[in-house]
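Listing 4. Sequential folding, example run.
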Amino acid sequence: MTSKRATVLAIDIGAESGRTMAVHFDGSALQLEEVHRFPNYALTVNGVLQWDILHLWREVQAGIERSRALTAGPPASLAVDTWGVDFGLLDRDGNLIGNPVCYRDSRTEGMLDAVLKRVPKAEVFAQTGIQFMAINTLYQMMSLVERGSPQLETAARFLTVPDLLNFWLSGAQVCEFSNATTTQMLNPFTRSWAGELLDTLAIPLDLFPEVVQPGTRLGTFDDIPVIAPACHDTGSAVAGVPAQTENFAYISSGTWSLVGLEEAHPFVNGAALAVNATNEGGVYGTFRLLKNVMGLWLLQQCRSTWEQQGRSYTYPELVSLAEAAKPLRSFVDPNDDRFLPPGDHPAHIQAFCQQSGQPLPQSDADIARCVFESLALAYRDVLQELQTLTGRPLEVIHVVGGGSRNRLLNQLTADATGIPVLAGPSEATVIGNALVQLISLGELANLEEGRQLVAGMGEMERFEPKGQEAWHSVKMPAIQ
């Protein structure tokens, strides 16, 4: 019989910041307590944009140490999730060969084409089921192959960023399934590495370790069990969705917006390839059929540019400005390549509007409004594509993550899609991470029981569609 009382540590690291949260379970409810918060950043060293992974390792240890003062005894377990696609290489002694390179680094330029010269696009998709994006690990690895990197000659093991932190915590050199799928190097049907693809591209197959499922116990750190959650932060966020129906969509809203459906099997066919859909691994045998949309990164970069120009805004102030701006004037495609690197995004937005023959957003308020409405439009188009693929009706859209607090964007999403939006919880990633730990510990029977707990936390706000007739004629603009 289980205790039905446990505290677990969820360590969640995103592209801008990380935090350690204690999640307390008393047998009937979850309570979250922040233990430690820290920045994350990429640094350019010798012309390469890379992560300060040793800084993250120090902060992970600091959070674990601080948690001991908040709990009676050590936590029942701990688990780490991070962003996807980036990785480190280890030598045969287990030493890291250089910092993990940031997915926004320029080394992947031209690498998608380099891969497709060797393997047809349809074959890459058939072997991986993953959306074609230049940031994917496959193209990062191809850049090492193309330039004959000495790292490949030295390397003995490949680990994604959360797997690297798990190795330092537990000693286990494995890759967790949900994060491994983001690499575009894993076969979703065999749930093992796509050996034929890797061999064709001269990417050494022997670099890649065993793939383990979410909920696997990896080892211990200071006598605390280390459990693999869905190590991809979106995988954990979707696990934390308080779904009460099978016919739901989700938007994990943050720097990126991950828009999708939870499915029992991957959709790997010509129709999925045609819309560039992706089949990322989920928890407990599920797949996340989704598309990546460049999310609130656009607003973050606009805010940074305005601050450099002497105009500082809080995010709530930007929402208020956008609410007062004229609606439905100008749109951008959030996934246009110009928006991927850091830069002057207000100027990029204006240039896109000019090149697509739309009114030029002039004021900061107009630009902020353009960002929010463009995201809502992109969400609508993605969900329509996924509904066509699956034939599934949608009753509700769950918006989770930090972006769920943006009431304007939530309402615009309901209006654009014509589907009610349930916003919250904002801490879905931490909650999903904790639910997998609690299931692994035997404190919860299954994910359904966990989602019932999340639904009872009372954080959700409902947004009903209104004014959607104005969106019927709106289409994603294209560059002329």
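-- end of first protein; second protein begins --
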Amino acid sequence: MRSDVAYFRCKIENRVATVALDRADRKNPLTFDSYAELRDWFRDLHYADDVDAVVFSSNGGNFSSGGDVHDIIGPLTKMSMKELLTFTRMTGDLVKAIINCGKPVVAAIDGVCVGAGAIIAMASDLRIATPEAKTAFLFTRVGLAGCDMGACAILPRIIGQGRAAELLYTGRSMSADEGYAWGFHNKLVSASELETEAHALAIRIAAGPNFGHMMTKTMLAQEWSMSIEQAIEAEAQAQAICMQTADFKRAYDAFVAKEKPVFEGD
């Protein structure tokens, strides 16, 4: 998987990719270029054999301030409907790419996490935050609808319909304590521990049966649109496929030998 990116930070180590937006002086806003490059990078990640988990990190004490006011919002006010739809579809494609990348994504959230930054955190599989994290879906505060980049579909699944409706209508910040109590954050840690905790979780996941993790992520995304009967059948097929992997046999052999299994992802 390539790490030579131009519009965000990327490092690959121990089969974990760490990415972060790279404009700390402006609280890491997104631009047209960073949207597109992140979308393409996560799309390619589905085919990468050297990455088994991702940490989407904060930078300089903040996660992301969302779309850049000068580089994105200003130009959007001058675009035609066709150009606007091209842009909104591109931003949605970033969320789809994160969901369909086949690798668990851990968001490490510190400070400001708003707008499209909050959406990236929402689209991640797991979220670890600091007490200073403030998350806001502030689209209505700039005259837009709260239904941006899948927010009306995904956020209620995480925190519930009523809580999601409040955040999406008002655009107010969700505190770290609220986020943890509501199930948005999996864990709260100090700022000094954030990177360590996020990477420890990612490394633990990467050491697991990664074909099984890919299947788990796929089913988590797909089963919301299935009936219970369809979901049970889909999981039966998914599990039967996983039972053909070498990692399944490795786990059995290790159990018999009273050893800890070492998974290799095949």
